[in-house]
Design goal:
mainly alpha
Length: about 120
């Protein structure tokens, strides 16, 4: 539960910052890169704080965070067709970030497993 909540809160905060605070025409780091990096950030922070990497739980936390921010976005900006917005957000923003977070989770699981093996010796 600690892993899920940590991942959810970090990912939600990163998505909310990128969606509502970060300027859309930023020249330093494009917004799409930050949206793709949000699930990776959540996965890595949760993995190192909880010392475990639960890939299924991470995917659920990231999906929940993305769709909460998307729902708030649709309410704030009075989107006429929220289903189309959700479909667009899923294919363009969520899936690439979730795939990168999956591979980061596999790497974190490997590193944490190696660290636990060294502790036993």
């Amino acid at each position: 539960m600690r892993f899920f909540l940590t991942n959810f809160i970090v990912t939600l905060s990163a998505y909310a910052f990128t969606s509502f605070v970060y300027p859309s025409q930023a020249t330093i780091v494009p917004r799409i890169c930050l949206l793709w990096a949000s699930p990776v950030l959540g996965m890595l922070i949760a993995s190192f704080l909880a010392r475990i990497a639960l890939l299924g739980s991470a995917f659920g936390a990231q999906a929940l965070a993305m769709y909460i921010v998307t729902g708030i976005y649709c309410l704030v900006y009075h989107e006429k067709r929220p289903i189309d917005t959700l479909q667009y957000v899923t294919t363009v923003y969520f899936l690439p970030g979730a795939v990168m977070a999956f591979w980061a989770g596999v790497f974190a699981k490997r590193v944490l497993g190696t660290a636990k093996g060294l502790e036993k010796q």
